Amino acid sequence: MQQSELLEELQQVYAERFGLTILMTDENGERLSSITGDNVLCNHLLDKGDLWGHIQEAAVWKWDVTKPAFYDILPGIYFLVIPISGEDGQEYLIWAGVLAEEGNDLLTLGQLNNRYGTETNWEEMLSEAPAVKPDNKDWWILRSTRLSGLVQALLKEESRSSGFGWQLPLLQKRTGLEKPDIQGLFELFLSERKDYDFLGIAETQDEEQYSITNVAGKEVQNLPGSLFAPGEGFLGRVAITKEAYYWEDIENNPRSFFFHRRNFYPKTIICHPVQRHDGTTAVVFGGSVSVTGVSRQAMDAGQFIASMLEAGLYTYDLQKENNHQLNRLSSLIEICKLMAATPEVKRILYILVDISLNLAEGPFTSVILKDEESDKVQLVSRGNIPASMEVYVRDVIKRYYTERSDTGTEAQLYDTSWGTEVIECPLFHKQELLGVLCVGIGEGTEQQLKEQRTFLETLAIIGAISLQLAKQNQESESTAGQAEALFRAIEQFNKEAFDKADTTAALAGEFAQKIGLPAPMVKDIVTACQLSYYSPSFLKDILGDNKVSDMVKEGLELLDNKESPAWDEVSIGSQVVALGLAYERHPENWEAEVQSEEGIVEEFRTFLKERQVSEQEFTLREGISSPPELMVADSTVKEQMSLSPREHEVLELVIQGLNNKEIAEELYISGHTVKNHVTKIFQKLEVPDRAHAISKVYQLKYQHSNR
Question: Where would I find the HTH luxR-type domain in this sequence (predicted)?
Fold first, then answer.
């Protein structure tokens, strides 16, 4: 296959993958390849506008760059300009675009309308163009560097007339794969390259070891799973230096013992480092068991397959991380919904410990709450609580409450006296410390710890807000209960006053509803009318500073001709209370009590006239229902989700925070069987992970308890 065909195939692969249109010019602005890709904005400007003229003008500049760079060919519209150096000293430029600058849409749209007219739907084209923003520029540069390396290798190989057609099947096999088929690529590579007898890759097992994960070729059956340390042997040297290297005639080299003891006897070995998204380095290695020398073509071929793998694995890592983050975000959304539907402190604490225990898969999790006005401490825990937990709790109280550690919402890592690391997340609402979420962590990588810490910080923020709302809800319910008790007390010693207050409350409530006031305000107006028998100062002492006592005070002041405030100086709720009280005192001459011509007075007058010819019966006072029990029969979830008895047992242990190994030991079954049960449970619950499963179970139980 000719060089131009291979180049265009490579362009097409990258153009489709990243949503760009790609072309190549020489340093004089002459186009060397066809225009490939379906970037709508770029293609429209090339066909209908003067974009090609801009490219030709820019191409003849002296580009003093050796790496890909962004070029704003129009305001807010960028090309990635990728420099290529040929073996003959010729300089080339790859133009990949166009990308739209995020956050600059209006300016860019105005420029396009001014330059090319308003007939084209520029807004839609801009929305479809890939976005360039400060936090993804490095990502685009990295992708462009991969393309640069492949094109440069293609040009070099072609210049040696050695043929580069072997690369096309690999490119075609890679295109469209969500995950690189490493074994398939290796086998295809070996079938196309006769100067290689074997090809493999070693990846990090942990910080101190590498493992050969995939290998293809002759006599390599004993290599998979082989371990080595960074710096050890041929492969270990590349792993630690992160630089490509090759060795010739290695049959008697002492470093070859790593292979010889596995009945594998290579004569050459070529190694290339492959950078992964998590910062680790893999090693691609290959060579021959028959030839003792390494050609330049073999080195370039190794670089090509390493670049392909690096690009594929990097993209796969990003997609995997993105899916992982989406699942976590989805979990947080479900948790938010659940906490919003569960305005009770105890339930919220249970949710926090359950979710965090299953997330960290550690030994225990606890929420520590301290009453600011006393020495009482509330502790809610799950998991294997250590014997010295009380000592740890006292230490947490001292560090966060007594010493007032100024950490904000940031999670802290703490080493306990018994050797367990704990992520401590303060539950702050504004400037108030509500508690501390303490999550013991199990074994894991630094990256996993970082992810857990970030997730728990977010969970702590959500939990703190939910706890504050639950406390406010409890205080509101308590105030409502006190108000009801005060109202009923009137009936015991002054039945006539009680009846008047009840009638006034009904009238004021009906009027408030008619003029469209919100339900919470209507409720406060009704309560204020019911308690208007008491003095405002008494109500403030009993109920504290709240809207009800203020409405009573302002409503009475509006009817006091001596020092009455202006009607527009008090709340609308107080005005309605005043109107209700005026009608209660003098139904036939209530307007004399009011002595105002505010708009609301006229509305009240109209309301009374309409009310005289209508009949309604309703109750404004709501009964106080008992809160639902926290837990319901375990059969609820089992019946609704059609779980088998064994699946139900497994789910209960999942909820308790046991990992798969612990569940297997508890039920005397294999870990593989547990994994199958957990997978089926997630399918029946229609959730992707344990956090979602916890949320779903709580939702089902909560719905059942409210029936």
Answer: 636-701
Tokens linked to 455: 């997730």
Query: What residue type is assigned to position 370 of the chain?
Result: K
Report d(CA 247, CA 250) in Å as an integer: 7
The DSSP symbol for 36 reads B
Is residue 383 a contact partner of residue 395, using CB atoms and an 8 Å limit?
A: no
CB of 98 closer than 8 Å to CB of 54? no
Q: What is the CATH number of the domain that holds 642?
A: 1.10.10.10
Strand partners, 92: 26, 84
Whether residue 392 sits in one domain with residue 429:
yes
- Phi, psi torsion values for 97, nearest 5 degrees: -170, -170
CATH of the domain at 8: 3.30.450
Query: Which tens digit of pLDDT belongs to each residue from 188-231?
Result: 888 888 889 999 999 998 778 999 999 999 889 999 999 999 99
Long-range contact pairs involving 558-562 (C-beta distance under 8 Å, separation at least 24): 558/594, 558/596, 559/585, 559/593, 559/594, 561/595
Q: Is the pTM of the predicted complex or chain greater than 0.70?
A: no
Q: How many domains does the chain have?
A: 5
Task: Give me the torsion for CA of 464, 466, 467, 471, rounded to 10°.
Answer: 140
Q: Is residue 624 part of a domain?
A: no
Note the residue count of the chain: 707
pLDDT tens-digit series, residues 6-56: 677 778 888 888 888 888 888 777 877 778 888 888 888 888 878 888 888
First to last CA, the chain: 72
CATH number at residue 265: 3.30.450.40
DSSP letter at 566 equals: P
